[in-house]
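User: Can you help me understand a structure? I only have the sequence.
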Amino acid sequence: MQTPNSLWPNSLRRIAFALLAGTATPVLAQSLPGQAQPDIVVTGGGIDEVDPRSDAIAILERDRLTRTASNRLEDALADVAGLQSFRRADSRSANPTSQGITLRGIGGNASSRALLILDGVPQADPFAGWVAFPAYAPARLGRVRVQRGGGSALWGSGALSGVIEMTSATPDQLSPLTADIFYGERNSVDAQGSASLVRDSGFASFTAGYARGDGFVPIIAQDRGAVDRAAPYEQFNASARTVFAIAADTELQATVQGFTDRRERGQAFTGIESDGADASVRLVGRGRWGWSALGYVQTRRFASSFAAIAADRSTATQTLNQYNTPATGLGARFEIAPPLGEALSVRLGSDVRETSGETRELFTYVAANPTRRRVAGGTTRTLGGFVDLKATLGDLRIDANGRLDGWWIEDGRLFEATLATGATLTDTRFADRSGTQPTGRFGLAYAAADPLTLRAAVYRGWRLPTPNELYRPFRAGADATAANAELTPETLEGIEAGVDFAFDDRFTLAATLFANRLNDAIANVTVARGPGTFPGVGFVSAAGFYRRRDNLESIESRGVEIDGRARLGAFTLGLSYAYADATVTAGPLAPALDGLRPAQVPAHQAAGTIGWARNDFLASAALRYVSEQFEDDQNSRSLGDALTLDAVLAVPVAQGLAIEGRAENLFDARVETGFNGTALERARPRQLWIGIRAAID
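Assistant: Let's start by predicting it. Here is the structure, written out as tokens:
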């Protein structure tokens, strides 16, 4: 496995440090002794707005983001019940293609059905829609706001089941220097560090994280064979951000970030490589007319190899080498908030996003050598405009927004050739397609009494298929899934009603009932079982299934969400519970699926946290439960329920220095995550850590 320094592009490192140094200079220059100090307050946020009261919203504050047992973003997000990746494994052992995120039990695949954004920039992989969790050091984040429910006209395509809005740390949350390093079981290392420079008229920050481990054996002990081994990982991320005032009421925000990720799935020929580099620039006006202008670019590279495992797990044979999947995302956004008074606010805006990429593969292996080459990819584009209205009429709050998007699917292609002769086997150019999609949400909130608010909302959202779903086949263990260039956009219609109790910041409780219908749901539909050679994927062994992406008629999900928070002196308590009764209607495509549950969707999820902090001493515990779920669309293979306990204990030893112990899955509960052939895979075994945290204030 290569070291992170060898993987981290020199050009990206130069850009990051140049940005940090170059933009820090004017910040310092505006704060020199003897100079007039401008009356400027820089926040680093977007247009100021009041959170709508008709939404089902969960908030993760910075102290929780940076104090989980794993010190990873996905661990903190697990505090919000109902927010899940497609599979239960985290980003140390999962295939990245299984880490699309969703909410409210509407199912998923590699592509996310909830939209993840950071400082206004979409974060999902531009080609495939999954989330590269190793890209984020929690120390760089100030808050995460989870809006459950679709129809957010502010964001358009992708915000089907909700929006996870991450914001970077603000000046009051930053320390000049922080560092922490932990050592854990299986020769694991986890380290993060940050540096920041804060002045009245701006700030600059740099954050980096590194993690590695020898890994655990994903296959459970009784199902292992000679091919099964530990799954190591090595990951690195870095980000540089600067925010400074360029006028009394205008600030410039610039960010560059990048990551490298190397994993193996626990057998030969299952190595994974993923790299990314992003940059964004945003201007924010905070005068009488609020406004924001944003531009960003994302670049990604993904490579993965796949193996067929013998029935007795004695041998592994390479079946596919997806040696490169380059992808690019480009986008721009402009919005404006005219001054209309305290009782009425309006935001108007427009945005454009383009994603493109292709998969480059070697396949059809004979005598351990590939015999064919495949290139498949294309481009998608959206262009939309939106209006967001909030009005207060006494005790009644109205939240209404609407949006219209145009979409384009273009330049789709599939090329296959023999390696020996170069002869073309397939050279298909798929027809360009386009259309429009409306998005809307209407919500009401009524303050019935001082602690009590009643709310209700209806909404419609949509999602455009990714180039990955349209053109790229993939493998998970022995199973293979073909792409489908004729997929149509998904649309979601939903309704919800809820009640909120709030007693200052000491106690909050929210409960929401919801009903969603996802139309034209994109799913991996089982077509046949191996052995055999199938279109789009090649050979599938007897241990695997051949599947194809298709639009099912619908997925319906009804359920309830409950969230509570309490602060009792030095103690903080949290509770989150989600129930989703989800069923598939496949229609004539696959009538045998009618009435079944979507794959990888549990009925019950719950998370409970308790924390205690006093005089820099800290102790916390997180108890999480996920009920049984089906691994496949036919509901023929189930994954058992799991109850896990995480714990953190920090003891100060000097000013700004603490020793900390962490325990993930303390009692080593078995968290089943999928099948590799007939063998069962697990995730997140017990992991114990010891380390130090240091901060200079």
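Now, to help you interpret it: The CA atoms of residues 575 and 608 lie 5 Å apart. Confidence is low (pLDDT under 50) at residues 1-38. Let me know which part you'd like to focus on.
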